[in-house]
Amino acid sequence: MKTTETETTVLIVDDEKDFAATLAERLELRGYRALAANCAEDALALVLSYPPDVVILDIKMPDLSGYEILEEIKESVPTTEVILLTGHGAITNGIDGVVKGAFDFLMKPVTMNTLLEKIQAAKRKKDANNPEQKGTQ
Question: What is the distance between the alpha carbons of residues 94 and 85, in angstroms, rounded to a whole number?
Fold first, then answer.
């Protein structure tokens, strides 16, 4: 069965408030359930309250690094897939994140089509690894 966008909850974590809000709106227009957080504390609270299927996580955050947030997410809700997004740093930063448990990484700027493809691939991986939770979040 093909996963529909309306079955997918995406949390965007980025300290650039306009970017996070705009991306959430664009995902909602495409049928996703989208949440946005602009700091680690809010992101982690949302992860615990409304576990998302996929998190789009900026590596450079003011309070905790994206790597620290990634570790917290994977400890709290290991089934959630995380895509790292950064406009800062080199490709090695993204590779480090994948080693730490991220699904993948993307460099800003990223096209909406590329981001959507990664979200769909991350959701498929989550569903394949956790068939008993498919469609329950």
Answer: 8
d(CA 71, CA 20): 21
Task: Give the Cα separation of 125 and 129 in Å (integer).
Answer: 6
pLDDT digits (tens, 9 = 90+) for 52-61: 999 999 998 9
φ/ψ of residue 38, rounded to 5: -115, 5
Q: List strand residue ranges (DSSP E) for 38-111, in order.
A: 54-58, 81-86, 104-107
Pairing of strands 104-107, 33-37: unpaired
Of the candidates 40, 41, 34, which has an alpha carbon nearest to the alpha carbon of residue 12? 34
Smallest CA-to-CA distance from 108 within 91, 82, 85 is with 85
In this prediction the pTM is 0.90
